[in-house]
Please model this.
Amino acid sequence: MIDFKGVSKWYSNRFVKTFVLRELDLSISAGEFVSIMGPSGSGKSTALHIMGMLDSPSRGEYYFVERPVHKLKERQTTELHRDTIGFVFQSYHLIDELSVYENLETPLIYQKIKGKDRKEKVEAVMERFGLTERRDLFPNQLSGGHQQLVGVA
Model:
């Protein structure tokens, strides 16, 4: 499902190339649970950003469900990410000016889901995650745990 072959990521200026990932080989099968651990600065977040298609490797190959992500055009990568990847950020990236309901609805708008279907999906996910009573609250009115629940939802 996810395969990294010799994935490297670096940043350079005129004088120095700084590696944050060097020749990472990784294979994750469908349904497999994986933990990525290591000290600060070891490249965990960078690997996850590449895996989540939020960044691209400087070198190497990345296959997602056998699709060569490293060869896709930016638009194709964006569509693949939008349609197949769920990502919960450490800071939940909720939109402060939107209610819980609106934060949950926004990705569905980008997917061009019709209003009635959006409402049904948002209502169902709020019910599933126990967020119905918080539907009209804004992120700054939620506990960290509830913010995380909204991010996961």
Observations:
- Strands lie at 2-12, 17-28, 59-64, 67-68.
- The chain has two domains: 2-84, 100-152.
- The domain at 2-84 is CATH 3.40.50.300 (Rossmann fold).
- Helices lie at 44-51, 74-84, 100-110, 115-128, 144-152.
